[in-house]
Amino acid sequence: MIAEKAGVNKALIYYYFKDKNDIVKSLFDTAIEKLHKRISLDGKIGPYENFQDKIRGVLDFLDDKKKILSVMLMESLKGDDQNNYFFQCAESVIRHSTNACLESGKDNGSSAQEMQRYLVHEFFTGFIPIIAFSVFQDKWTDYFHCNPDQLKEYFIDEFVATHLAGQGPPGANP
Amino acid sequence: MIAEKAGVNKALIYYYFKDKNDIVKSLFDTAIEKLHKRISLDGKIGPYENFQDKIRGVLDFLDDKKKILSVMLMESLKGDDQNNYFFQCAESVIRHSTNACLESGKDNGSSAQEMQRYLVHEFFTGFIPIIAFSVFQDKWTDYFHCNPDQLKEYFIDEFVATHLAGQGPPGANP
Amino acid sequence: MIAEKAGVNKALIYYYFKDKNDIVKSLFDTAIEKLHKRISLDGKIGPYENFQDKIRGVLDFLDDKKKILSVMLMESLKGDDQNNYFFQCAESVIRHSTNACLESGKDNGSSAQEMQRYLVHEFFTGFIPIIAFSVFQDKWTDYFHCNPDQLKEYFIDEFVATHLAGQGPPGANP
Amino acid sequence: MIAEKAGVNKALIYYYFKDKNDIVKSLFDTAIEKLHKRISLDGKIGPYENFQDKIRGVLDFLDDKKKILSVMLMESLKGDDQNNYFFQCAESVIRHSTNACLESGKDNGSSAQEMQRYLVHEFFTGFIPIIAFSVFQDKWTDYFHCNPDQLKEYFIDEFVATHLAGQGPPGANP
DNA sequence: TATGAATGAGTGTTCATTCAT
DNA sequence: GATGAATGAACACTCATTCAT
Asked: What is the C-alpha separation between B141 and D67, in angstroms, rounded?
């Protein structure tokens, strides 16, 4: 498909990429890079009036990335790969958005333990639900025959209500 | 692979199953059935001292189901299937555990809208994080080189703190 | 299919028949036997008012045998079998109908050459067109979108006009 | 088998052909194309001294096509196909040879009914016996232990005697 | 006789990759 | 850089047959 879309011979792909995995990796790299750009930009344009609007923005941004996110998720679930791009992505997004949020890259005295707990919080109750919504929203409206816009509003409400109830970044607010 | 592991001829598989899809379906059915049994049992032995213990129990129960859950998740992500087993599973688990929780199957006067909102809540901030933890815990400890037991405690803390902050089942609280 | 229709286990078939070929053979034998019965009967009830009616009768008789005739034809075309049932069938039908026609089984002084020539005539301009009509009539009406009854009349006309123009049985008419 | 005979990898076949059906189609197309070329050529070199010689020529030409003709016949007998190549072949051969025979492609005022009757005649008492002879001659000499050349002469005699006795092309004879 | 379970040997097809030029 | 041709290894599945009881 890639060769066809690029209008070149299939064999030529092996001139630029080592193998299929290498293509996927490069796709992932591009996607992660875009996320980073968006996050640093996010730090500059914020603070948002409210958290709802911020999440809405993130969701809109992710909407045309849901395909590659699905693939990333599946690749990481297969588990036969050494370099877990999904985790790499999650980690860098969490660290970047935290920094952007705290507006400082400097060490803020948090312990490794606090950091771990924070990562667990952000990954399982923040990153994962957001990604899940992105990749599942279409299937959800199909399965439950419901309105996409209302689904999004419900999700944002519930996400904000739950996620913000958890702990903030280490060393942020006393 | 299945035939090989079972030490039988490949063709024998087609004596017991119609086709590949039939195998997958039967695997899913078995898994879902186990979940249901566990949930009804859960209703009987409850109420727990605290929610933490309940989640710990669920996590332990899911631990040897993580493989099939991964497959279910991936199949649903591929999206070329008509019958989304992952959603079926999620829906039935949520409905069953809600009934078990409310200790009544009778109509409690909740509107379809309230139910949708509740489903969204339970799916994206309850079911999804739990499943994600089950299928990702090993990869997490590998990736972040951390202690599995501590990871589980962190997760349970954060899960309870966030998930319970959201809305309860429709018609539950007066 | 046979086992299913007979309401027995597939393996039981191998108790009564050596192999698949043996089943087919027995099917052929039954079909050929039916043809013979019909031919001797034919000898008794004839002579027909005209040849047209006789052919019409043969065609009607063959109509529910077209499936097995197709199979016989195909088996003989495959050619990897030693005992060509299609030829056996053709030969016995031709010899029987000749005898029935001449009303005698006795040697009528015809040479082997005359017999060969007669067999060639009967097979290629008699037996083959008749069989071809039986197995192809449905496909023909499908393909040319024409009326089955008219097709049959056209065929009978043309068959009689051509076939009877050829030579008769050896030693029949001087 | 094809890959093996060609001394190449099985997968290579799928580089040149879409699927199994595509292979068969291309085989049929090639055969039909050859028939057409031969027919138009036939129109140019005729008229023959006598019809016997013409049939002899056709039979010689078909001799190395008997394998593909068998397959075409069998495929059409199986009947699970939508595009009946055997009928397509027969129709185009009959129409072409009729045109070549009449030396004009122009409308000669024949009705659809006359055409149908002519097609029936040509197919069942012309095309079919000729094809049958091609595909069965070897099996016949095997079965009846007779001389191939004499068989051919017998067939030609009987074919000409019978087939020409039927009706000519519509609009041919005034 | 009769059956459930099992099997070897295919068939048609795809996939990721490589080779020779 | 770029291509057409080629390949090994698998996959999903069927078929005719056999085994053990």
From this structure: 66
What gap in Å lies between CA A19 and CA D46, rounded to an integer? 63
Which tokens hold the place of B50?
């605290």
> Can you read off the two tokens belonging to residue A4?
């066809």
pLDDT tens-digit series, residues B144-155? 999 999 999 999
Quick one: three-class SS letters along D65-119? HHHHHHHHHHHHHHCCCCCCHHHHHHHHHHHHHHHHHHCCCCCCCCCHHHHHHHH
Q: Which residue has the tokens 């990481």?
A: A76
Report the range out of A93-97, B68-72, C154-158 with the highest average pLDDT. Answer: C154-158
Q: Helix (H, G, I), strand (E, B), or coil: what is residue D21?
A: helix
Q: What is the pLDDT of residues A99-119, one digit of tens each?
A: 766 544 445 556 888 889 999
User: ∠A129-A135-A137 over CA atoms, to 5°?
Assistant: 85
With a CB cutoff of 8 Å and minimum separation 6, the contacts of D123 are C140, D90, D94
Residues A68-80 pLDDT 10s = 999 999 999 987 6
Q: Residue B135 corresponds to which tokens in the numbers above?
A: 């299928």
What phi and psi values does residue B111 have, to the nearest 5 degrees?
-80, 165
Burial A76-91 (b: 16+ CB within 10 A, else e): bbeeeeeebbbbbbbb
A126-164 as b/e: b if 16+ CB within 10 A = bbbbbbbbbbbbebbbebbebeeeebbebbbbbbbebbe
Residue ranges in C7-147 assigned as alpha helix (H):
13-16, 20-45, 51-62, 66-78, 85-102, 112-122, 128-144
State the Cα–Cα distance between residues D31 and D62, nearest whole angstrom: 10
| CA to C1' distance (Å), from B68 to E3 | 35
**What is the pLDDT, as a whole number, of residue C24?**
93
Residues 6 or more apart whose Cβ sits within 8 Å of residue A40: A96, A100
Q: How far apart are CA A22 and CA A75, in angstroms?
A: 13
The set of long-range contacts for C79-88, using a CB threshold of 8 Å and a minimum separation of 24, is C79/D70, C79/D139, C81/C21, C83/C25, C84/D139, C84/D142, C84/D143, C85/C25, C85/C28, C85/C32, C87/D139, C87/D140, C87/D143, C88/C32
Reference B56, options B163, B159, B145; nearest CA is: B159
With an 8 Å Cβ cutoff, are D117 and C76 in contact?
no
Residue D84 CA to residue D72 CA, distance in Å, equals 9
Among B45, B54, B65, B72, smallest CA distance to B159 is for: B54
The whole-number pLDDT of residue A47 equals 64
Tokens of A156: 């944002």
Which nucleotide's C1' atom has the smallest distance to the CA of C13? E2
Name the residues contacting strand E (CB < 7 Å).
A 10-11, 14, 19-21; B 8-12, 15; C 8-12, 15; D 1, 10-11, 13-14, 19-21
Residue A31 to chain B, least CA–CA distance (Å): 18
Is a pLDDT exceeding 80 seen at residue B170?
no
> CA of B24 vs C1' of E6, distance in Å?
22
Q: Do chains A and B touch (3 or more CB pairs under 8 A)?
A: yes
Alpha helices in A17-147 (DSSP H): 20-45, 51-63, 66-78, 85-102, 112-122, 128-144
How many degrees, rounded to 5, is the angle at CA C67 between CA D139 and CA D166?
A: 65
- Cα→Cα distances D33→D30, D39, D67, D108, Å: 5, 10, 16, 26
Closest residue, by C-alpha, to the C1' of E11: D20
Nucleic strand F near CB of residue C21 (< 7 Å): yes
Mutation for testing the D interface, residue in C69, C136, C155 having most D CBs under 10 Å: C136
**C10 DSSP assignment:** G
CB neighbours of B155 closer than 8 A, spacing ≥ 6? Answer: A120, A124, B59, B133, B137
